[in-house]
């Protein structure tokens, strides 16, 4: 019996131009942080280094802890000292990146159906960012916070995609067996293969997989 439905965000619920979004995101974030003594190019290099370290996290720390430590090692700047500035960025300037985000009205329909039927709904986007980053992007697509049982943010999780332990951590945190969950994602290597390897039935979404409308039909036929 299926109890939980897991969704990736970019390319699954949001059909984004990820390259353009990343470019706008880094530019806006670097501009926000520059007055606090971090040169923009060094900031971007430090962010990229921290992302790599999170992806290789061995599970001994949360991804947020790994991020802060890796950023400090690369830039010499302790981001924990300016977390209020970072939080302000995600609530304000971060939204300057949103013109790169496409909208899919079917996503809202899917999540409303899941909530109506009582499924646990987990936003299983790669946990490289704080909760507010995923949530504000979802809200831009008319997707409300109340739709989600959990959002896999970097302060909660100890692994990242494509590590299968990330998917195992989702199951453990939500008291689920693999056969009680299904997953929708758009990346074969990041999403489908590792999720399937821990026993979660997974569906490829996007240009090489199913459409959002087909995703809804699969869920209705569970």
Major beta sheet summary:
5 strands, parallel
Q: Which fold name fills CATH's third level, the topology of the largest domain? A: Rossmann fold
How many helical elements?
9
Q: What's the alpha carbon Rg, rounded to whole Å? A: 17 Å
Write the layout of secondary structure elements.
Elements: E1 4-7, H1 18-33, H2 40-55, H3 63-75, H4 83-91, H5 105-116, E2 120-123, H6 131-140, E3 150-151, H7 164-173, E4 181-185, H8 188-197, E5 201-204, H9 212-220
Parallel strand pairs: 1-2, 1-4, 2-3, 4-5
Structure description:
With 222 residues, the protein is α/β, with parallel strands linked by helices. It has 2 domains: 4-16 and 102-220, Rossmann fold (3-Layer(aba) Sandwich); 19-98. It has helices spanning 18-33, 40-55, 63-75, 83-91, 105-116, 131-140, 164-173, 188-197, 212-220; strands at 4-7, 120-123, 150-151, 181-185, 201-204. The chain has a 5-stranded parallel sheet, with helices on both faces. The longest helix is centred in the N-terminal third of the chain and has 16 residues, at 18-33.
Short description:
This protein has nine helices and five strands. A five-stranded parallel β-sheet has the order 3-2-1-4-5, with helices on both faces.
